[in-house]
Amino acid sequence: MDYLSLKQWSPYIVGLLIGLLNIVSLLLSKKPLGASTGFLKIGGIFLRVFGKKEIELNEYYKKNTPKVDWGVMLVIGVVLGAFLSSKLSGDFSIRALPSMWSREVSSSFPLRFIASTIGGIFLGIGARWAGGCTSGHGISGTSMLSVISWIATISFFIGGILSAFLIYGI
Amino acid sequence: MSKSENNRLLEGLIIGVLFGFLLQKGGVSKYDIIMGQLRLTDFTVIKIILTAIIVTMMGISIFYPRGMIEVKTKSGSIKNAVIGGLLFGLGFGILGYCPGTIAAAIGNGYLDALTGGLFGILIGTILFALFYSDLKHLKFLTIDKYSEYSLFHSARENPFKLTLPISAFLILILYLIQSAGL
Hints:
The complex is a heterodimer.
Chain A: H1 11-28, H2 36-50, H3 52-57, H4 59-63, H5 70-88, H6 99-104, H7 109-130, H8 136-143, H9 147-168
Chain B: H1 3-26, H2 31-38, H3 44-63, H4 78-95, H5 99-108, H6 111-137, H7 160-179
Helix pairs in contact in B: 1-5, 3-7, 5-6
């Protein structure tokens, strides 16, 4: 039980267990791990509040019906699982800003709010454009030896490294 | 809602809880660790991803020939993967979380993830959906011969012929990262 209360595990152990979880998910749910479709559906559910017509006529939401499904539950589960893990290790606390950002960029919350909103918008558009995210392409699609997933994952990191260096310098 | 539909939702939730637990224990619910990877000072993210790929690939190699796992990969094109991937990457570096890890960051208590980050991702997916038809008509989004293509499809009898050499290569990369002290 002591192991569960450790703040951080070896990345190799975590990778091994995520791999095993992915296999279980493929066997049991016939779906690989992936988070971005969950956000797509949650966004669609919110949009439906403002206008049902928009959703019904939209080609993309016709293909991906916005409703609470497996992928949405997965995202909710991730929040709960991370909460549980951080509570067990005493690592949970409400923090407004990541320490690296407040140390090296700015300690203003409004600025971080604006930056994270802009970052989130690019992330959301990019994930749907590429057809997946760091888990759907980066772990699952690559393991399934999809050429598209390998190219997407490499592009995620090239783009990410470039924008990290733009913010923090070399 | 049928019983089996409820079961599927429950499966999604349980798998999600385990995934979130592992992401947090891996440290990737934290901006500093993810940005450490993108600034090339901390290789935790790559170590987790490559290890997970090796293990998943071995599992698929065992269960795919027996018909217990389907290998259904994403549709699209190399062009979509590059353009979408770079846009994603740009956002990844500004936000410091990706869709899976932002959910974990929210669970860990990070308010920037819960407010701006979550808000932004939802806006991003909605914008994409609203412009999807136009992007398709203007040929920004395409389908090419790699759509839904996987190397597994041509190696169904013995996938290990493919996955053992690839795993060896990925292990070599991990070994090099580790010996460089990263």
